[in-house]
Every structure is written in C-alpha cells, then in structure tokens.
Amino acid sequence: MSRTALLVIDMQNSFLHPDGENTYPDAHDVVAPVRELIAAAHAAGTLVVHVADRHRDGFEDFEQKYLPKHCVSGGFNAEFFDGFGPQGQDNEILIVKRRYSAFFATELALFLNEQRIERVVICGVKTNVCVRATAQDAFAHGFDVIVPREATNSNRDHLAVASLEDIDRYLGKVVDLDIAREMLA
Fold first, then answer.
1. Is residue 71 among the annotated active site residues?
2. Which of 2, 16, 100, 169 is least surrounded by Cβ atoms within 10 Å, i.e. has the fewest?
C-alpha cells in the first residue's frame, strides 16, 4: 500500500466556475494539472482526499470576520467544479472543512494516520490561504509535505510566490508536476 496521499483542496465552483463567487482570472490554470495528479493517483491506487470548504447558512462563522460569506452548504458555490470531488473510486474520501486548513477540526490527521500515510501531496486553490494552511498543519502532524507548483495558484501572485518559498524552506518541498506524479505512483 502506498504511504502517500493526494490532498485536493477546494476544487469547487466558488473558485473555478466563471460564475463562482470567489473566482479569479488564473484559477482555471490549476484544473488540468490537478486532474493529472488525480488520474495518476487513481491509476496507482493511491489515496485521494477531496477537500471541500463548506459553511452553514444562517449561522455565525468566524471566517466571516475576514472573508465574505462563501461556499454555503447546499449551494452552487459549495459544489465541486465539473469533474472534481469523489467519483466513486475505492481510493478516495471527502473531508469537509470550515477553516483554511483541511486538518483543523476535521478527522483528516486521524484518518491519514490510520492508513499509515507518511507523505501528502497537496494541490488545489489557493496557494497562500488553504493550501499553505493545510501544508503547515500537515507538517505539524508529522507528514512529509509535497506541493506541486503547477497545481496550485492564487489571485495574489506575490503571496503565492512567498507561500511556495515558505513551504519549500520550512514545511516540505515544492516540486514540478512530473515529480509529484511520480510520487503518487
């Protein structure tokens, strides 16, 4: 069994659909690279964790102090973008989060440890927010962190660059897409 898992962060309509509430011009650039990583993971039987940012309508949410209401459960923006999310494969699960990190207040660390996962490849949107927060918490939980640079981006290029530099220096490795694909196999 592979000791690597692919974490696919927030590939939802909110960020990727042209009508999404948080879409940005370069967001769609990650679609093809992330699909390549998912295909490689599926082909190898590697665990794929689809992470969705979802919030409850009509209830207070701490994130709303910093971000407008977004990804409301049951709504268009909270749904996975076309072709993303669990597709019925045996080697994939769904994690729903309410904060930037896929680890915070979810069962992700517990589940990955039960599967004896040692390394996580993290891709998706956005580099400087949810991808970086997930990378930091993955590191804190003792996982080897890999981020393929072509499979993540942000609406703030300078913050994406700084986040990748931080991840590579302090939390794990930032690699090319080809290397990440090999790690999933």
1. no
2. 169
